[in-house]
Amino acid sequence: MLLAMVGSAVGLGNIWRFPYLVGVHGGAAFIILYVIFVFLLSLPLLLSEFIIGRASRLNAYGAYDKLAPNTIWRYVGFLSVLSPFLIIAYYDVVGGWSLHYFFEACAMSFSQSSEIAGMFSNHISSPFAPLFTMGLFLLMTCVVVLMGVQSGIERFGKIMMPLLFFVILAIAIWVITLPGASEGVKYLFKPDFSKVTGKTLVAAMGQAFFSLSLGCGTMLTYASYAKKSDNIGSSSLQIAFADLLFAILASCAILPGVFAFGVDPGEGPGLIFETLPMMFAAMPLGSLVAIFFFLAVLIAALTSTISMLEVVIAYLVEEHHASRKAAVWGCFSVLFLLGVLCSMSFGPLKDVTILGKTIFDCFDFLAANILMPFGGILACVFVGWKMKKPDVYAELTNEGSLRFMSKIYPLIYFFIRYVAPAGILCVTISNFLL
Ligand code: TRP
Questions:
Q1: 98-150, pLDDT tens digit by residue?
Q2: Strand 353-354 to strand 357-358: parallel, antiparallel, or no bridges (unpaired)?
């Protein structure tokens, strides 16, 4: 269960989203804010999802209904279906890029650095090529969910995840030795708080939710499989640390290279696809490393989309009595159309903006900065205000048998009841005021 939760947490969020946000938001200051948010807001939220999941032993929509029967809380479950659905709509665009780059790596395209410049922007702005790999990626997700070979892909993920870790570690070590990389290391570890604005706060908090798959019912569902004897405090810490480790390591592999190769760190969503191929071209055995790297990224992305789609399909099948097949192909059709819009917002539709954001950015913003925080606040409020205090105590301390957890219980309870919901609310609102 712990591995499955780490598998859901570690995905494109760590390898693609975190490094590019660090680049956009000025380096070390963003990382520090992110770590603070993980401990102040994400951990209480993760604990809340653990408590709701394990106390109810049901999926997200059933859980609230069981713990608070016949109340409006059951509609919170709906939120936990909407967020993953919207995330897939743009996550599969990046999944498609990874697939394209995996094909390119297999074709040994990353051996000549002269061919790499401009490759990414050409690819994403061309009208059809990215749609093809995006569709293929979505199709792979749907086929796996349809066949229910989830355990197979999870097992595959367990091999690929450590591989991904070591490939990124190797790249990070190599990249730091490059001339010019020290600028990037400084950027990563020397904070410049003058660059911090309200937007930085919202982005760091959104990432702290996105990366840990919080506020959208996934962790809650996994937690329902936790044993009564598991220590949910230490499990939560382990998940948060593993996720953080991947994110920081990925940044160490990417940002020093950004400086060494003179790429603009504020490049945005394309950052890893711009810089990594250049590194592979310059690296001994780079072509081979590239194949393993993009394969591992692909698997990490797939395990995430599979678990997101599963949430939506389970909802349609259990609550609306759809057949599994109809649900999957129905989702595929809608998601493909949304994916086309998101993908085209880098090319033909790049001038279509809503509140200054492209369609792709809108989906990302809506999911990570609005729906996930909102779902998160509700989960904390549910545990802190709606559930009975002795029940929360029993879950957190395993009926009082965990000594350390019993000792720090008042502190955790305070965080779940006041700090996390108020903190999330403030940061979310600040985005609209600042
Ligand atoms: N945490 C995942 C990542 O870092 C993304 C994600 C967000 C997710 N919400 C999710 C994955 C829900 C599975 C289920 O890439």
A1: 999 999 999 988 887 777 878 888 999 988 899 999 999 999 999 988 887 66
A2: antiparallel
From 161, 218, 364, mutation site for ligand 1 pocket: most ligand atoms within 8 A of C-beta: 218
Q: Whose CA is nearest to atom 8 of ligand 1?
A: 213
The Cα–Cα gap between 423 and 33 comes to 13
Tokens of 331: 């989702």
Q: What is the 349 CA–ligand 1 centroid distance (Å)?
A: 26
Burial class of residue 200 (count of CB atoms within 10 Å of its CB; 0-12, 13-18, 19+): buried
Distances (CA, A) of 80 to 93, 115, 159, 279: 21, 43, 29, 39
Per-residue pLDDT tens over the stretch 66-89:
888 888 887 887 888 889 999 999
Largest CA distance in the chain: 65
Distance 83 CA to ligand 1 centre (A): 10
- What length does the chain have? 434
Q: To 5 degrees, how large is the angle CA 219–CA 225–CA 227?
A: 120
Q: CA 246 to CA 407: how far, in whole Å?
A: 31
> Which residue ranges have their beta carbon within 6 Å of ligand 1?
8-9, 11-14, 84, 87, 210-211, 213, 216, 218, 304, 307-308
Could you count the other beta carbons within 10 Å of the beta carbon of residue 277? 25
Report how far ligand 1's centroid is from the alpha carbon of 114 (Å).
35
Q: With beta carbons less than 8 A apart as the criterion, state whether 323 and 161 touch.
A: no
Whether 202 contacts 31, CB under 8 Å: no
Q: Helix, strand, or coil here: 354? A: strand
Q: Which atom of ligand 1 is nearest to the CA of 84?
A: 12
| Mean pLDDT to the nearest integer, 388-400 | 94
**Residue 11 CA, closest ligand 1 atom number:** 15
Closest ligand 1 atom to residue 301 Cα is 15
Q: From the CA of 16, give the closest atom in ligand 1.
A: 15
Q: What is the mean pLDDT of residues 283-301?
A: 88
Q: Which residues pair with 390 in a beta bridge?
A: none
